[in-house]
Every structure is written in structure tokens, then in C-alpha cells.
Design brief:
The chain is mainly beta. The protein has one domain. It is about 5% helix and about 45% strand. It has one helix and ten strands, in the order ββαββββββββ. The strands form three sheets. A five-stranded antiparallel β-sheet has the order 8-7-6-9-10. Strands 4-3-5 form a three-stranded antiparallel β-sheet, covered by helices on one side. The longest helix has 8 residues. About 20% of the residues are buried.
């Protein structure tokens, strides 16, 4: 298992490989159901809304607002720097994901704060999507 900055890195599978390939290319991507137009994250083998398997990947602008967040001040692992911020992001194109809000002071983060995706190079294979506060 590869570790970066105290974080075990994800291991891409057949299902998640398109997501990680898009991240390597500097694009946030989301699954899209051709039958009902639902955006799906995390990736699934079938649409949870209509059970269709006609899924493809769409690029996302990667902008949204913080729906909810927590500031972690005591890490579960001693090699993980603290504090760090984990947030649920409501993306402007109609889906949500959980991720880090990077390079932000904990007191600056609020529900409703605008964010945009950035990518941290953790390994040759994994570029991690994180979010940064924007004006």
C-alpha cells in the first residue's frame, strides 16, 4: 500500500480507474447515467436511481459550496499533520462529494463557502482532488 503524507493512497479498480485517470489529467469527473441523467458519486456499477448500466463519465467544473465540514485536530495516525478539514461539497453541476479543504485556516471555513477543486500529486498514479476556498 502506497502512503503519501500519512494518508494511505487509494488503489484504482476497474470501476474507479476513469475517475483517477481524469484526476491525473487535471479534471474532476463524475459518472453520468444515460437513462435518467443522474450524476453518480462514488462510482457504482449501476445507477442507484433507475438501475441502468448505461453509465459514462463527464467532466465536472469542480466548483461548488461547502455543505458541511469538520476540523480534525487529533489525527488517527501520528504521521498525519493536523489540523485538516474534511467537507461535503455540493458541486455546481448537481452532485456531492467529500474531500479535504486544503490550505485553509479552519476559522476561515464556513458552510456555504465557495470552493474549487485542485489536485495534489501523491504518486505517479494518484492525483488527489482537494478543494480550495475561492472568492
Amino acid at each position: 500500500m502506497d502512503v503519501w503524507n500519512g494518508i494511505p493512497l487509494p488503489e484504482p479498480s476497474e470501476l474507479t480507474a476513469p475517475f483517477w485517470a481524469a484526476c491525473r489529467a487535471g479534471t474532476l469527473a463524475v459518472q453520468h447515467c444515460a437513462a435518467c441523467a443522474r450524476r453518480i458519486f462514488p462510482p457504482l456499477p449501476a445507477c442507484p436511481g433507475c438501475l441502468s448500466r448505461k453509465l459514462s463519465w463527464l467532466p465536472s467544473p469542480g466548483r461548488g459550496v461547502i455543505y458541511s465540514f469538520t476540523v480534525v485536530r487529533r489525527a488517527a495516525r501520528p504521521d498525519r499533520p493536523v489540523p485538516y478539514i474534511i467537507a461535503t461539497i455540493d458541486l455546481d453541476d448537481g452532485w456531492s462529494m467529500t474531500g479535504n479543504v486544503a490550505a485553509a485556516e479552519p476559522d476561515a471555513v464556513r458552510c456555504g463557502s465557495a470552493v474549487a477543486v485542485r489536485f495534489l500529486v501523491a504518486s505517479a498514479e494518484i492525483h488527489l482532488p482537494v478543494f480550495a476556498l475561492i472568492d
